[in-house]
Amino acid sequence: MNEDLRKFIQSDRRDFKSDPLESHITDHSPVNQFGAWFQDVIDLKLPDPYAFVLATAGMDGTPAGRVLYMRDLTERGLTFFTNYNSEKGRELSENPRAACVFFWSQLNRQVRINGRIEKLSSSESDDYFNSRPRESRIGAWASNQSSVIANRKILDDRVKELTAEYEGKDVPRPPHWGGYMVIPVSFEFWQGRESRLHDRLWYERNFEGNWKIVRLSP
């Protein structure tokens, strides 16, 4: 990285200006509060509103993060889909916990969700897989996700082979592909404020299964 770019990174600043985030004006359910914020994102037509960073770690404790798409969020949990044999799939089998981060910079808002992981049922994974475009369903068969390949042509050729194989047929869900759910144990709602004195509200389940809300120092 050249020196000018490094100086830019070190010196570039912007202040955050937002309305206060107070516990008495937020929903007692973090899922409902997320929904309210998500609606704001949708109303502004921001790109990829459901994109989030999923952080996982295997048995050796080495963290790994990547951007995925959320496909549902209910009181039960947050849903995403992937190849079970991928890096994240292997890590989740060893350590079924994950952290999720959504960041909507135009609104100066961030949401963190921490929780344990469960696989979705076969029927739930089938339902979502069958809703995907045909090309994406073939792609799920073609890609041995996270494995090393010599070049792009190998992947493209495999897609052509599978396209011919399934011509005129339904494309079933691969057994190594399906859904996971993050069962939340905590949420953090972060709103950028002036002078880096941000608002942070932390939701955590108590022993009765209800959500307790506390304010965290920025």
Keywords:
218 residues; alpha+beta; 9-stranded antiparallel sheet; globular
Produce the secondary structure layout:
Elements: H1 3-11, H2 30-43, E1 51-57, E2 63-69, E3 72-73, E4 78-83, H3 87-94, E5 97-104, E6 109-119, H4 122-131, H5 134-142, H6 152-165, E7 177-191, E8 199-205, E9 211-215
Helix pairs in contact: 5-6
Task: Tell me about this structure.
The protein has 218 residues and is an alpha+beta fold. Helix content is 29%, strand content 31%.
The radius of gyration over CA amounts to: 20 Å
SSE order in H/E notation? HHEEEEHEEHHHEEE
Shape: globular
Mean pLDDT: 94
- Proportion in β-strands: 25-35%
* Low-confidence residue ranges: none
- Category by helix and strand content: alpha+beta
Please give the alpha-carbon distance between the first and last residues. Answer: 31 Å
How would you characterize the largest beta sheet?
9 strands, antiparallel
Summed up, the helix count is 6
Could you tell me the number of beta strands? 9
Portion of residues within helices: 25-40%
Question: Briefly, what is this?
Answer:
The chain has 218 residues and is α+β, with helices and mostly antiparallel strands. 29% of the residues lie in helices and 31% in strands. The chain contains six helices and nine strands; from the N terminus they run H-H-E-E-E-E-H-E-E-H-H-H-E-E-E.
